[in-house]
């Protein structure tokens, strides 16, 4: 019974991981919708989001960061993106990880200051300070807001357009190519893992001795590595046969329109308002 539950756990984990990758990484569906951010030129969108991220990075007020987070949620709504989908993508992993990083900053050992509360654990006395609470809250809000803007940029821009814009702004070719390859082949190899598990399950069933299971897992890992290595050689040969000589050819077919300049002015005002009020 325990072995069956274990196999179901593995199956659910693999299916859940592949499903999450499909939903979160490959969301070109949202980039194709007719919303606010989808209508902006990708070059201008990248510039304005960089401006928003810099404002989040350099502000020292929680209220200002919260205001920018609300702005990101308004952009999400106007871009016709499902709010539950957006929150799930922005609150998992990095913000939760940052929460654990920020916890020590709450205490007087790391951030001395005005005492708010104290408690004892295993004979040790811990004190939470006002300065520590403020610093930890500001850090978490910055992370959440930055992740929200980064996710918003990625899901409202088609991935090949985003990579093209990065090259237009002279981001190193190696970085852009690695990013593009990772984007394409993570999904491919996730499906290979899913299909391999399904094939094993259909041939040997779910109940097996753990030593045999270890052997199958080791064989699957070796097979996946060999297939990825061979696929790498095949892709590179295909690129050479199509004229690749170290630098991919990029056609710049973007057109800047008046609404893109209006969008730039709008974002500048959004960033300038809290700075002006803080004076």
Q: Please, could you describe this protein's structure?
A:
This protein is mainly α and 279 residues long. The protein is 71% helix and 5% strand. It contains 11 helices and 2 strands. A two-stranded antiparallel sheet has the order 1-2. A hairpin with a 2-residue loop joins strand 1 and strand 2. Helix 9 packs across helix 10. The longest helix is centred in the last third of the chain and has 32 residues. The chain is flat and about 65 Å long. The chain starts with a helix and ends with a helix.
Topology:
Elements lengths: L1 H23 L3 H4 L10 H17 L3 H17 L4 H9 L2 H9 L12 E7 L2 E6 H26 L3 H10 L4 H32 L5 H32 L16 H20 L2
Antiparallel strand pairs: 1-2
Radius of gyration: 24 Å
SSE ordering:
HHHHHHEEHHHHH
Largest sheet: 2 strands, antiparallel
How many E-type strands? 2
For the largest sheet, list the strands in their spatial order.
Answer: 1-2
Write out key terms for the chains shown:
single chain; flat; 279 residues; 11 helices; 5% strand; 2 strands; two-stranded antiparallel sheet; mainly alpha
Summarize the entry for a quick read:
The chain has 279 residues and is mainly alpha-helical. It has eleven helices and two strands.
